[in-house]
Amino acid sequence: MALIDLNIPAGVYRNGTDLQSMGRWRDANLVRWIDGTMRPVGGWRTRSDDAGANKLRGMATWADNSDDRWIASGSYNKLYVWNAAGAQSDITPVGLTAGREDAVAYTGFGGGFYGAYGYGVARPDTVRIQPATSWDLPSWGEYLLACNEDDGKIYEWQLDTGTAAAVLSNAPTGNRGIVVTEERFLFALGAGGNPRLVQWSDREDNNTWTPAATNEAGDLELNTSGALMKGVSVRGQTLLLTTRDAHVANYVGPPYVYGIERVGTSCGLAAKQAVIVVDIGAYWMGVNSFYTYQGGAVQEVQSDVSDYVFNDMNKAQVSKVFAVSNSMFGEITWYYPSSASTENNRYVTFNYIENTWYTGDLARTAGFDRGAFRQPMLVSADDNKIYEHEIGFDYGGLEPFAETGPFMLGSGDQVVSVTEMLPDEKTQGDVDVTFKTRFYPNGTERSYGPYSMSNPTSLRFTGRQVRMRVEGQRLSDWRVGVNRIDAVAGGRR
User: Fold this and answer.
1) Are 155 and 147 in contact (CB under 8 A)?
2) Which range marks the domain in which residue 425 is found?
3) Sheet containing strand 59-63, strands side by side
4) Under 8 Å between Cβ of 394 and 43
5) Do 305 and 432 share a structural domain?
6) Given this model, what pLDDT does residue 108 score?
7) Closest C-alpha among 389, 426, 467, 418 to residue 27
8) In this structure, are 174 and 201 located in the same domain?
9) SS3 state at 284
């Protein structure tokens, strides 16, 4: 008889084969690890039932000079704001050019033959994907600015819920996006339809765009083969991400105003909303990897789940990916569509404090961290409602769980019988545990349980390799640490 500690490292590992995740958590949903202990994420509750009929992409919050708080978001054909009480106002600009709710492959009429490619076979790299429409929504003081690539104009909304957002005077058109720099310049990205041109307004004056000796308006064209996607402010710099590389704009003062330098190659942004800024820098999802810029040069972020994420993603709908931070726990989460879905239905989370990764299934289209509002908020892809997150432990019928990869009982060359478990829980009975055994890596799997935890818990199963599944059974803040099992070696058959 021997007690075996199931001391499983925090986070999910899902690269390579099932056996390569030996001794690690391999699958999970709605759980996180803090100080090595697994716990459920916070639940959610409805903040606003009225989020429009179409999917929202791009979201922002801010407080005006009277400390009234606002939420802004938009669909492919609408722009909305919500007040702190959750009341919605339609501020869609007059004459807004509608975009697309879903990404589409643009080949022109008759550009392809029906049935020309087998199901699941990638098309040749000759088709241009027109992305799903999403909004850039920075604030200019207490006012809201808005722009999406399909319309290309820059709009301003001045807090009157009875008045639509209006075109910003003298601003360029045909833009791919906008960003407000820390020096209080407004950058138009891809200005005038040039995908590499950055044009900026005068400092503190977003209505002056023509350069003159008396102002600091100007423009620069990036030396890149990519197209501008997104701009974000990072530690006194403005990070400009393209489809291929990364650049930073540094304020140098008149007469040049800004200088731009490349800080990364082959690190292009996967989607306009797939980048987020946290205290230590910017993080984003690329085409096949994750990247960070913390000053100096762009670095690739090594991921324990990159195989799972990038090999089962709907690349045609990758433009719907968005990133959101959760500063309460040091987390960055990307929501993305799996290969079997046309809408975001999964998430991958990186805890940059503990350097761990976890995955799960949850349908969200837009969101933001706490700041102007007390809790993070996310928009559901299922019902278009805005939900406050990290509230209680109600998951709308979903259940938090985590399941390990296989671990060997003994040295792996003998059959081992397990008779008892000594659970390490905060409160007994908050979770159930199921064990799944195999005699060979690809052999038939047998399931035992679920067992409701008591101390000790009687078990009865035999195998060479075992997986353990932990499922939350109560809507509470449970904890799971290092469980132990009592095992005895059997024969070699």
Assistant:
1) yes
2) 2-41+402-489
3) 59-63, 69-74, 79-83, 88-90
4) yes
5) no
6) 47
7) 467
8) yes
9) strand
